Structure formats: structure tokens, C-alpha cells
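Hi all, posting the design record for the shared folder.

TITLE: backbone redesign
STEP: 1 of 1
STRUCTURE INPUT:
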């Protein structure tokens, strides 16, 4: 009788995590996102484990998992292969799995940030710049919308040199684990005495080398059509463009590094290429507030000249 009571009173442990250092942790998996697995042992508070430290894991209860962006109710067994699990007796990389709280493939998730920054430009003149920008993302397991907007105001020796509004929209259709199709639009308007606006629309395939969720390294090739409009004339041209998007989080998400690089080759002999590069860091002060540092370099190489604009941003932002 005592043995029977001991058996029924002993807590049922359904999940086991095997670590690369040989340790084994049993308990209940509470969360498995793009960065960490969180497990609650019966003998201690919740434990957060980095993805990179996990060799394999298993759970004998069917749960709501996102596997390569497809939601499935499955049970998972551990694998002898490092970095793999068995899903329906098939070897599956751990990198493809997320313990999802979504109820359907079409459920939307939203995230974004708002940031203000002061620029220090690398020239000998008294140049001041004010930037205000926003970044909003809405995504399902297969679709991702991203809208960025930015207002830039620049003075040089007390003269207004720039007063621009920029907006960038991109739509990614995630075909598979690695392949995607991107459509994007960009608009910029210079609001000085002689207004100038330019716009481009682009479409093309992309490949995700690595990453899931927040971490990523995407390479996209697009065919772009450009418009340039002033009060006097309108000019159009086409170009092939290559884009590299990188983002990675470090130290439990406290530090973010990112880069957005694009080079376009217009179909006109007067312009060799147009490039736009952004490198940046974000440091979380709290879960919502962060400090940012951004380095921008824009270049245009033509037969007549080689122009280059370099600037640095120091900013304060809020995530939501």
C-alpha cells in the first residue's frame, strides 16, 4: 500500500533535455523560442537553456509545435544525432522547431520599435541631424510584412540642407525553410524649396542561409524599377539589386547586431552602381528601452563622379 501511494504521489515527468556537456534535465518544457528552451523541473524554478547548448530533447505528450513554420500536434523523441530530434520517427533538426503558442498557421504576430537619434557626420562643417524612425513587423508562419518610416532633418551652418521623409515596405512569402519571395517598395521625398521625390518597386527571390525568428541572414536578388520626379522632369530606370539582411541577438537578447546592405546596378551606362549600407548595434536597458548606434554609408559611382555620404547615429528607442 505504501509503495502504491508513493507511485501515485510521485510527479509525472514528461520532458527530458539532453545537453551537449552530458547533463540531462527532466521536467516540463514551458517555452522553446528562437533563443532559449525553458524547462520547469519538479525540484527547482524554471531553467533557461540556450539553443546552442542542446544536444536533443524529448516529450511524450503531444504539444503544439511549429516545425519549419507549420503547426503540428506531435510528440517528440530524442535522437542520437547531435542537434536533432525524432518527430514521427523522422530525424528533424532542432533549428526547425519552436514550441508555439499560436493556434493556427494564419495567426498574426506584431512587433516594432520607435527611435529618435542625433547624428554626428564626418565632415569639418557644423552639421546637425535629427532622425525619428519607426519599424513595424506583422507576420504569420508564411507571410511577413515590414514597414519602416524615417524623418530626417539636417542643418549645416544654420542652413537647412535636408528635410526628407522615407518609407520602406517589404512583403516576404516564406516558401520553405530557406527560400522566400520578396516584394518591396521604397519612397523618399525631399521637402526643401525644390521638392524631389524618388520611388522604386522591386520583386525577386531570396535565400535564408541561417536563422529562425529574430536571428537571420537573408540574401535577396530583385529587379527594381526606379522613378525620380522633380518640378521640371521625371526620370525612370531599371536595375538589378542584391540585398543582404543580417540580425543576431547576443547575451540572452541584451545586445543586437544588425546589417542591411544593398547594391544596385542600373541599366544605364552613366551609372556604374548605387550602394546603401547600414551597420548597427542595439543595447537593451530594459525589456522595452534600448540604446542604438548606427553607421550609414551611401555611395553612387558614375562615369563623372564617385559620391559618398557617411554618417553615425546615436539613438534611444522603445520596443513594443
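Okay, here is what came back for every position:
SEQUENCE:
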Amino acid at each position: 500500500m505504501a509503495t502504491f501511494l508513493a507511485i501515485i504521489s510521485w510527479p509525472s515527468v514528461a520532458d527530458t533535455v539532453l545537453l551537449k556537456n552530458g547533463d540531462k534535465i527532466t521536467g516540463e518544457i514551458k517555452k522553446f523560442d528562437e533563443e532559449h528552451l525553458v524547462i520547469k523541473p519538479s525540484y527547482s524554478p524554471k531553467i533557461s537553456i540556450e539553443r546552442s547548448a542542446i544536444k536533443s530533447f524529448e516529450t511524450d505528450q503531444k504539444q503544439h509545435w511549429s516545425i519549419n513554420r507549420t503547426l503540428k500536434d506531435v510528440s517528440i523523441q530524442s535522437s542520437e544525432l547531435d542537434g536533432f530530434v525524432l518527430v514521427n520517427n523522422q530525424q528533424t533538426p532542432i533549428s526547425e522547431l519552436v514550441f508555439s503558442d499560436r493556434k493556427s498557421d494564419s495567426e498574426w504576430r506584431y512587433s516594432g520599435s520607435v527611435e529618435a537619434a542625433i547624428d554626428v557626420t564626418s565632415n569639418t562643417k557644423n552639421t546637425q541631424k535629427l532622425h525619428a524612425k519607426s519599424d513595424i513587423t506583422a507576420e504569420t508562419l508564411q507571410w511577413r510584412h515590414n514597414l519602416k518610416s524615417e524623418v530626417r532633418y539636417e542643418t549645416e551652418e544654420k542652413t537647412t540642407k535636408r528635410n526628407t521623409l522615407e518609407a520602406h515596405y517589404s512583403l516576404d512569402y516564406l516558401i520553405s525553410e530557406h527560400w522566400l519571395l520578396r516584394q518591396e517598395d521604397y519612397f523618399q521625398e525631399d521637402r526643401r524649396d525644390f521638392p524631389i521625390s524618388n520611388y522604386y518597386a522591386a520583386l525577386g527571390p531570396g535565400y535564408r542561409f541561417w536563422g529562425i525568428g529574430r536571428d537571420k541572414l537573408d540574401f535577396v536578388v530583385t529587379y527594381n524599377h526606379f522613378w525620380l520626379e522633380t518640378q521640371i522632369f521625371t526620370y525612370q530606370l531599371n536595375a538589378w539589386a542584391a540585398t543582404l539582411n543580417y540580425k543576431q541577438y547576443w547575451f540572452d537578447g541584451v545586445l543586437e547586431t544588425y546589417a542591411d546592405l544593398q547594391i544596385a546596378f542600373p541599366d544605364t551606362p552613366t551609372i556604374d552602381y548605387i550602394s546603401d549600407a547600414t551597420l548597427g548595434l542595439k543595447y537593451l536597458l530594459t525589456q522595452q528601452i534600448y540604446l542604438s548606434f548606427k553607421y550609414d554609408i551611401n555611395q553612387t559611382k558614375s562615369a563623372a563622379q564617385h559620391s559618398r555620404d557617411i554618417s553615425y547615429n546615436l539613438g534611444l528607442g522603445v520596443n513594443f
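COMMENT: Residues 12-99 form a domain with the SH3 type barrels. fold (CATH 2.30.30.100).
Let me know if anyone wants the other runs.
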